[in-house]
Design goal:
Layout (H helix, E strand, L loop, with lengths): L6 H4 L12 H10 L8 H4 L5 E5 L2 E4 L4 E4 L2 H4 L8 H11 L11 H13 L4 E7 L2 H16 L3 E5 L8 H5 L19 E4 L18 H15 L4 E6 L15 H12 L2 E5 L23 E4 L10 E6 L3 H6 L10 H16 L2 H22 L3 E7 L2 E6 L10 H13 L2 E2 L6 E4 L7 H21 L3
Parallel strand pairs: 3-13, 5-6, 5-7, 7-8, 8-9
Antiparallel strand pairs: 1-2, 2-3, 4-10, 9-10, 11-12, 12-14
Helix pairs in contact: 5-12, 6-12, 9-10, 13-15, 14-15
Bound molecules: pyridoxal-5'-phosphate (PLP).
Length: 455
């Protein structure tokens, strides 16, 4: 497969011929939302209807063509309808769609391949169909491995929407989470290091990683009943705004976990499978977690996810049955295997590192030139820019974030809103030409919004 399979369909993008949403989008959306409720901010703020996607482009039902800076929602990372992945799914769609958790030829290949690309002895695995179920399985695995019951997670992390996944995150944000009577018993949250807005600082004002670790040590003693199974964290916060911790954070957390006999569970659903230029985002810090989850990019659009533990914990997985209706079905296994093979065959990790470096340079220049860009964030193709009213006070500027999102969409950029932190998640196949095209659209939109607000 030629690496540039997507380039032809990208010619001429973006191409927006009307005020959006166009007439057919409006009609279709109105009809659909008579029945379908609870849409995300991404759709509410820009309600268009899509009918096609190919490579780095998406087309709406009025024929407008967009440059994709969302990958769906961090999902179609190898491009929409990657021919190898689509072909692999359709092969099994015509041969064997489901065989419960029986072994199939394609599952055999997938488990071997996944064990091969993961570091250390992360090679005992189960498959599920969404990130939330994989996280739930990770929680059950942590309990089965450790015999302990409590969990510590971090402010502004996100892990899904089931009971326990919700209990690992902020609960009162009505657009995402439940209004439970409370968090599930034994689930606690602590702050995690955000270099732009640190809770714990050194005397020179920079972030103090040790401050966080010391606080966790004290919290384990004072705030739990000493029965903590695992720390559950995103390596890089996705929904929280592409926030990367300081380089010494995970190595130090790993040490603390070892000291306290607590498992380290890295939820790589969003950040894993190449998005940051590594198979696992945790590879950036040479830290091997005890439990990881993959989702989103794992099947490049086909619903397939994984929960993986270290080999020495494999026995515990027998205590938490892997049986589910869809987990690891032949189509799912084929999608995941093809996606891993594409990452290797098309040197995707290298592309993410190279073009990711361009994104960082470009965002830095933008930050230097724009009064409302307070901070730039991210790694590889997991990117963020934080908008503030004033660089010295760092007051968040959510109204500007919404407007920039909408203006850029109107100019033909399909992407993701997130309050005052602009988030970019382009397909990992993208080259610098289109990366710069997308950043031009964002910069133009920021300039317009600055003008609107009198900067
Ligand atoms: C880090 C992380 N974990 C878990 C999930 C839940 O995945 P899903 O929406 O596939 O259930 C998400 C979804 O955004 C996520 O970002």
């Amino acid at each position: 497969m030629a690496k540039d399979w997507w380039k032809k369909s990208a010619e001429g993008i973006p191409s927006v011929k009307m005020e959006l949403p166009g007439p057919e989008s409006k009609r279709m959306h109105a009809n659909t939302t008579k029945y379908f409720h609870g849409l995300s901010g991404q759709v509410k703020l820009f309600p268009i209807a899509f009918s096609e996607g190919h490579g780095i482009t998406m087309t709406d039902v009025d024929g407008n063509r967009f440059l994709d800076f969302s990958s769906g929602i961090y999902v179609t990372s190898l491009g929409h309808c990657h021919p190898k992945v689509s072909e692999a799914i359709s092969h099994w769609a015509n041969r064997l769609m489901n065989a419960h958790d029986f072994t199939t030829p394609i599952k055999e290949k997938l488990v071997e391949k996944l064990a091969d690309v993961l570091p250390g002895n992360l090679n005992a695995m189960q498959f599920y169909s969404d990130g939330t179920s994989a996280v739930e399985a990770g929680i059950r695995a942590a309990r089965a491995i450790s015999g302990k019951q409590e969990f510590i997670s971090a402010f502004r992390d996100f892990h899904g929407k089931s009971g326990h996944a919700v209990s690992l995150a902020q609960m009162h944000r009505g657009d995402v989470h439940s209004y439970g009577p409370s968090r599930a018993p034994g689930f606690y949250m602590v702050p995690r290091p955000n270099p732009y807005r640190p809770h714990f600082k050194k005397t020179d004002g920079t972030i103090d990683t040790d401050g966080y670790i010391d606080f966790y040590r004290e919290f384990i003693l004072e705030g739990t009943v000493g029965n903590v199974a695992a720390f559950v964290l995103e390596p890089i916060q996705g929904w929280g705004g592409s926030i990367v911790p300081p380089d010494d954070f995970f190595p130090k957390l790993r040490k603390l976990c070892d000291e306290k006999g607590i498992l380290l569970f890295a939820d790589e659903v969003l950040a894993g499978m190449g998005r940051t230029g590594e198979w696992m985002a945790m590879n950036h810090w040479d830290v091997i977690p005890d439990i990881i989850t993959f989702g989103k990019s794992f099947g490049n659009g086909f619903p397939v996810t994984a929960m993986i533990v270290k080999e020495e914990y494999a026995e515990a997985l027998d205590k938490i049955s892997a049986s589910s209706s869809y987990g690891g079905n032949p189509m799912a296994s084929a999608a995941a295997l093809a996606s891993i093979e594409v990452i290797e065959e098309e040197d995707i990790l290298e592309n993410v590192r190279e073009v990711g470096a361009y994104f960082q340079r470009r965002m830095k220049t933008m930050m230097d030139n724009h009064p409302i860009i307070g901070d730039i964030k991210g790694k590889g193709f997991l990117l963020g820019m934080e908008l503030v009213k004033d660089k010295s006070t760092k007051e968040p500027f959510a109204e500007a974030g919404t407007l920039v999102y909408q203006k850029a969409f109107q100019k033909g950029l399909a992407w993701i809103p997130a309050g005052n932190i602009l988030r970019m998640s382009p397909p990992l196949i993208m080259d610098e030409k289109y990366a710069s095209m997308g950043m031009d659209i964002i910069e133009e939109s920021i300039s317009e919004v600055e003008k609107d607000f009198g900067y």
